[in-house]
Design the sequence.
């Protein structure tokens, strides 16, 4: 006789204010395979937890973004934001699609060079560029985006010494109607500081003013803010041409587009509120095209969007270590990954899906990471199906920032695996071991065992 | 373990405790466990019945039963032992 | 009129508590319709919304997933309810529902469910966070407002404002803070419930007056009744109110509706200062809970809204009786426990 399907027994107390029927809680669809590769097989081969990056999602997303802008604006160039994910394999896929490199440190700069990117396709941003970094960038002909006057003076000195020209842009900060206003990077538009900086550059023999850059914020949900920023940069560009005789070759709108991860504290889910590439492209393109440039002299539009470009291609595959009841009766599930490798759980209410078929019945659950630290919480409260020890779980949309901001804390960082377009898997960063971590440590002689 | 008297789960999985005024919702398996415990069946008896009828490993049943019992205790639906 | 058209209307906001939603007053307006015969489907979010249990107001009640869980869950549930009830018109009465419903309009229409909601542009531009631009664009006096996403930003924003200051949630809740400590306290209280940003708004002193109105989407004001709230509870809700003349208030309402081509119900919250200036402090993009006063004063706004949604001819109201007054009262209804059980376990209650 065939046995009936078992489900975990549940009893819940009704509390005033709770929605009536458990059945109308949306059921979390299990993710049992990614691009037809079963989760179980991936975990067997590469361990748990592990990151998986799907090549086709990167390429599809890139093309989607490119099409959104290209169909609205004649000259578009993307630059891959290294800090969002600087694993070489990931960067090389973007470069293969045609992205330049956008870097914010000497370390990232060198990575980009080693990934075969010539200086003339590197945009060098950020407040921390050492004199050596700047010299390297000047010699390579990279685009140096000045962040402050101290940097400008260092570069003036350096180029005079080298008798070499540097290609520069300034980063401009401004009021775009959103809050918080980012005024810590670059030169301010409203108080005239940006204009002063442009005037100063125009007087320099060895600085060649080529572009204007802004980066208005992070996870910016308002397309209007981009329109306003683009309008202000376009106005500066036209003024520079008219009053300083300097033709601005490109306008770099930076990044800050949202992904479809829902921010903590947001009421609606991100997919219901956030703009897509087409909406951002509409706002930005329209603002520049209607600013008053000659149609054949439109500046190149550069975009450094990182998060929106890579988030969807990354998955974190983990498993359940234990389930327990908290003293207030709530269910807690302990997972084998925590805030150490899923850094973005500080910002987002990440979707966490079961990685195997489960019963429809869900319970209010807290998801903890494995660290012996109270802050290690992946989700404080979500309606989650009842999993048992060893069951797989999948967190989609983790491609941005996690593989750069993760911490080596308490335990090793896991394998990162690339799933290529043909369905083959490749380790692109192997799991750390004790030797990796000990390599940079030095024990003073007096602490070594005596002979 | 003995469930408090006067507690009955109806067919839709609804349970009302007339002494405290609390209401509860149980899923199908929860209702089955609850009824068997109220009928006074022993844990071993319930174990055999469930394992024979449902596709479940003994260890999974054991964990689920312990968890369910602790829920009942937590919700104060059982008589003092 | 001989036999009246039968129209099935789904209505949310059945929380007829001391902080009431507009659902029951809307339903009362519909039940008094002279031009159609309504069948009322209640949509509830919580098991104890009084409207679920009130006799003779709804023909059936269904529970809904919270809008915060996402559009798909809401659509799925409405598809199910529609398969049972064949809804003609849907009137969402919670601010938190509106964004999704506006975005879902076409999908709802494909299911045969009509709505009469503002456009996304109208909805977005009147957000509390956009009030200063709104004032500039439509030439209306507004208080200075700043959206704040972190309590740490409050001191910086307060350089532009002074205490006392209004602290407002994205959808609901407003408090007067007199000190920074209070402001921070309210910030956390509001952001925990309604998310970010929280709005800090200049406190304009004067008398609060309000207008309930209905725009036809082409610039015509179909209905408008000004009131003065006579007593406001500690939750900021009117406990008593009276319809007033307010020619300047009506003029302002007509101006806003004609300039924005507002579509649907709206409530204008205004402050009349000592100098007799009117400040617009908020636009609620839906019918407010005190709509029954407008019905009582002679303008059946819920009925007119359903007719607009059904594309029936509607003659704009121009008259109402000044001096019509309402007083809210509470009433202990003996509820049917079986109703509680049904709504709790099955998520639906067919009467």
Sequence:
């Amino acid at each position: 006789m065939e046995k009936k399907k078992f489900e975990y027994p549940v009893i819940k107390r009704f509390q005033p204010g709770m929605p009536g029927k458990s059945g109308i809680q949306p059921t979390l669809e299990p993710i049992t395979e990614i691009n037809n590769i079963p989760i179980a097989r991936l975990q067997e081969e590469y361990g748990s937890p592990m990151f998986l990056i799907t090549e086709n999602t990167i390429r599809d997303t890139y093309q989607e973004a490119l099409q959104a802008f290209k169909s609205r604006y004649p000259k578009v160039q993307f630059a891959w934001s290294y800090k969002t994910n600087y694993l070489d394999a990931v960067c090389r896929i973007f470069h293969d699609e045609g992205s330049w490199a956008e870097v914010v440190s000497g370390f990232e700069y060198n990575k980009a060079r080693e990934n075969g990117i010539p200086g003339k396709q590197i945009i060098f941003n950020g407040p921390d560029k050492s004199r050596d970094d700047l010299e390297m960038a000047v010699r390579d002909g990279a685009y140096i985006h000045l962040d402050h006057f101290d940097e400008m003076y260092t570069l003036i000195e350096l180029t005079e010494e080298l008798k070499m020209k540097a290609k520069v842009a300034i980063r401009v900060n401004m009021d775009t109607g959103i809050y918080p206003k980012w005024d810590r990077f670059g030169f301010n538009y409203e108080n005239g500081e940006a204009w002063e900086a442009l005037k100063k550059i125009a007087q320099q023999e060895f600085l060649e003013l080529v572009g204007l850059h802004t980066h208005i914020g992070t996870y910016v949900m308002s397309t209007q803010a981009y329109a306003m920023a683009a309008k202000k940069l376009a106005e500066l560009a036209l003024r520079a041409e008219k009053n300083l005789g300097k033709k601005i070759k490109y306008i770099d709108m930076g990044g800050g587009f949202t992904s479809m991860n829902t921010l903590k504290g947001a009421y609606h889910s991100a997919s219901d509120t956030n703009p897509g590439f087409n909406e951002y492209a509409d706002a930005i393109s329209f603002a520049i095209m209607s600013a008053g440039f000659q149609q054949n002299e439109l500046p190149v539009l550069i975009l450094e969007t990182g998060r929106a470009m890579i988030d969807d291609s990354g998955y974190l595959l983990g498993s359940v270590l234990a389930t327990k009841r908290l003293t207030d009766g709530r269910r807690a599930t302990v997972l084998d990954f925590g805030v150490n490798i899923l850094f973005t759980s500080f910002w987002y209410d990440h979707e966490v899906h079961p990685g195997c078929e489960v019963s429809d019945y869900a319970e209010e659950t807290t998801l903890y990471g494995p660290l012996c630290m109270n802050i290690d919480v992946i989700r404080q409260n979500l309606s989650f199906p009842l999993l048992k020890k060893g069951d797989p779980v999948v967190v989609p949309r983790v491609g941005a920032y996690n593989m750069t901001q993760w911490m080596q804390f308490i335990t090793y960082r896991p394998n990162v695996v690339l799933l290529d377009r043909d369905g083959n898997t490749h380790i692109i960063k192997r799991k750390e071991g004790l030797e990796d971590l000990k390599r940079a440590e030095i024990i003073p002689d007096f602490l070594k065992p005596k002979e | 373990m003995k469930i408090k008297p006067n507690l009955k789960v109806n067919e839709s999985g609804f349970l009302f405790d007339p002494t405290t005024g609390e209401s509860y919702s149980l899923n199908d398996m929860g209702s089955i466990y609850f009824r068997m415990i109220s009928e006074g069946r022993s844990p071993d008896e319930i174990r055999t019945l469930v394992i024979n009828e449902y596709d479940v490993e003994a260890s999974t049943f054991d964990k689920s039963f312990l968890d369910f019992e602790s829920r009942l205790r937590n919700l104060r639906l059982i008589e003092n032992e | 009129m001989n036999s009246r058209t039968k129209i099935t209307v789904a209505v949310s906001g059945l929380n007829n508590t001391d902080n009431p939603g507009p659902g029951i007053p809307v339903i009362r307006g519909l039940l008094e319709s002279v031009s159609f015969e309504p069948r009322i489907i209640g949509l509830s979010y919580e098991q104890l919304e009084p409207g679920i249990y009130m006799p003779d107001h709804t023909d059936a009640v269904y529970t809904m997933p919270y809008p915060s869980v996402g559009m798909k869950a809401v659509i799925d549930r409405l598809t199910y309810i529609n398969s049972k009830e064949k809804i003609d018109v849907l009137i969402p009465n919670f601010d938190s529902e509106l964004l999704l419903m506006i975005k879902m309009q076409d999908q709802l229409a494909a299911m045969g469910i009509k709505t009469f909601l503002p456009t996304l542009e109208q909805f977005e531009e009147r957000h509390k966070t956009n009030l200063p631009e709104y004032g500039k664009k439509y030439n209306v006096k507004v208080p200075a407002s700043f959206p704040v996403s972190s309590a740490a930003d409050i001191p910086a924003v307060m350089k532009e404002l002074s205490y006392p200051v209004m602290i407002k949630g994205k959808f609901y809740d407003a408090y007067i803070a007199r000190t920074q400590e209070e402001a921070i306290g309210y910030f956390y209280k509001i952001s925990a419930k309604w998310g970010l940003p929280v709005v800090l708004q200049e406190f304009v002193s004067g008398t609060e007056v309000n207008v309930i109105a209905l725009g036809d989407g082409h610039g015509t004001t179909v209905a408008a009744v000004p009131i003065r709230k006579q007593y406001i509870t500690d939750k900021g809700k009117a406990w008593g109110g009276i319809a007033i003349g307010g020619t300047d208030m009506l003029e302002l309402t007509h101006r806003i509706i004609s300039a924005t081509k507002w579509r649907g119900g709206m409530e204008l919250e205004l402050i009349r200062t000592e100098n007799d200036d009117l400040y617009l402090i908020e636009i609620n993009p839906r019918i407010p809970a005190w709509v029954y006063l407008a019905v009582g004063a002679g303008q059946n706004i819920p009925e007119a809204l359903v007719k607009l949604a059904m594309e029936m001819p509607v003659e704009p109201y121009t008259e109402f009786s000044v001096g019509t007054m309402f007083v809210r009262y509470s009433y202990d209804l003996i509820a049917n426990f079986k109703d509680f059980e049904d709504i709790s376990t099955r998520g639906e209650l067919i009467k």
Q: What stands out?
A: The mean pLDDT of chain C is 92. Residues 144-202 of chain C form a domain with the Dna Ligase; domain 1 fold (CATH 3.30.1490.20).
